[in-house]
Amino acid sequence: MRFCRFSYRGKISWGVLENEKVQPLAGPPYYGIVKEGEPLLLADVELIAPVEPSKIICLGLNYADHAREMGAALPEEPVLFMKPPSSIIGPREAIVVPNVSQRVDYEAELAVVMGKKAYKISSEKALEFVFGYTCANDVTARDLQQKDGQWTRSKSFDTFCPMGPWIETEINPHGLNIKLRQNGVIRQQSNTENLIFKVPEIISYISYIMTLLPGDVILTGTPAGVGPVKSGDFLEVEIEGIGTLENTVK
């Protein structure tokens, strides 16, 4: 199933997508699917970011080819950092390049959306706690990342975490083609089978550090091919079985 968040006549709601229609829901689907009102045409609503997490936990250097292009050694365990929920934007919203950065990069990623509270869970059971998956772009001020020597500022600007267009619940997170197009040109192309640390292992590892709550998001890392954006760019993150996340840059 595909779940979304949308705006219609000034009201923001959750919904289920089916046959170009959106069935509004009474609340977040993690706690049960309760329909509310009549279905709406997808063309009549505005899709917004399909998540409202308490936190966004991200992996760095989780594709070997990306680690090589960054001149970094392959990690022995997951490299974690966080982005604030205030960095989230939805489909077709604009990524805003801050004046303090001269180099902002795109990073296409598979995002995991948690569906249950998870604390100290095994990798064997980890996928039972997942609600679904969506597309993400881990936008990064690369020059600030290198200047600071840590990643908080470079990853945390408002608009630096586009996600969407919806959450897909009926896919296996491994073996999915992932690509990013910049103005129609493919810049990144890989497959989630190439993740160094797989999704169940990632979830288990994080759950031994912090409690994951329903709606929390995990970004699983980006493949090689990261590069700079400029004002006027049109970016597309496409993941097999999910869809395409589109954003502009200004």
From TrEMBL:
Family: Belongs to the FAH family.
Record's protein name: 2-keto-4-pentenoate hydratase/2-oxohepta-3-ene-1,7-dioic acid hydratase (Catechol pathway)
SUPFAM superfamilies found in the cross-reference section: FAH
Domain Rv2993c-like N-terminal as annotated: residue spans: 1-50
Organism field: Caldanaerovirga acetigignens
Keyword tRNA-binding in annotation: no
Source superkingdom: Bacteria
Keyword annotations of the record: Metal-binding
Gene3D superfamilies listed in its UniProt record: Fumarylacetoacetase-like, C-terminal domain
GO biological process, one term: carboxylic acid metabolic process
The keyword Zinc-finger is assigned to this record: no
GO MF annotations, alphabetized: acetylpyruvate hydrolase activity; isomerase activity; metal ion binding
Record InterPro entries: Fumarylacetoacetase-like_C, Fumarylacetoacetase_C_sf, Rv2993c-like_N
Domain Fumarylacetoacetase-like C-terminal: 55-249
Classification lineage: Bacteria, Bacillati, Bacillota, Clostridia, Thermosediminibacterales
